[in-house]
Amino acid sequence: MDPRALRLMVVTSATLGPAHGHRGVVTAALDGGATAVQLRAPELGERGLLRLAEDLALLCRSRGVLFIVNDRLDVAVGSGADGVHLGQSDPLAGSRDRLGPDRILGVSVSDSEQARTAESMGADYLGVTVWATPTKPEAIGCGPGGLREICEAVSIPVVGIGGIDRHNLSLVFDAGASGIAVISAVAGASDPTAAARDLRMLIDQRKA
Q1: Which residue ranges form the domains of the chain, and what is each CATH number?
Q2: Which of 108, 116, 106 is nearest to 87 (CA)?
Q3: What pLDDT does residue 18 have?
Q4: Would you name the residues annotated as active-site residues?
Q5: Buried b (16+ CB within 10 A) or exposed e, 79-118
Q6: What is residue 38's predicted lDDT score, i.e. its pLDDT?
Q7: For position 56, what pLDDT does the model report?
Q8: Is the C or the N end of the chain the one with fewer CB within 10 Å?
């Protein structure tokens, strides 16, 4: 896949900041220049999640932005999303076959061994927690050094997530990541559109 599509991934939240609701976060992210959106809505039941994913898949497609569903491969396929992002607790075996060749498989990893395994099982990109964050307290950050080791261990794009904002994103790219994924930095901002636009500008300046 084109790593440029992963430069700025905004992960949704229904409770942070003024853009309440997943659709509000996505709309702000798209207006601000996000290159990818990930729907993370563990609070929703299956029917509500599928309905929302279908709506957001159409919205993102109309803007030419990658749309990924967190954890739920069945919802990703059923909604017409571009792909799914799975964690280590999710069943990876067979996921590539279930998705088919045209959808994207992202996998969260925390070390180079997990990274190589995910790549061998058909992952298109990896997500790596760089710093601890209140929005996902169970995830342990590996720091820029750990991120660098993972980036050097695989040939597929790596996206840093966890505690990333305008002040430290350069450390993530310095470590070799293709992009960043953020929750609080956009969904929790007083002006999420402006926050996304600011991050996109900084990333584009760096990649120019």
Answers
A1: 3-207 (3.20.20.70)
A2: 108
A3: 66
A4: 40, 108, 136
A5: bebbbbbbeeeeebeebeeebeeebbbbbbbbebebbeeb
A6: 98
A7: 98
A8: C
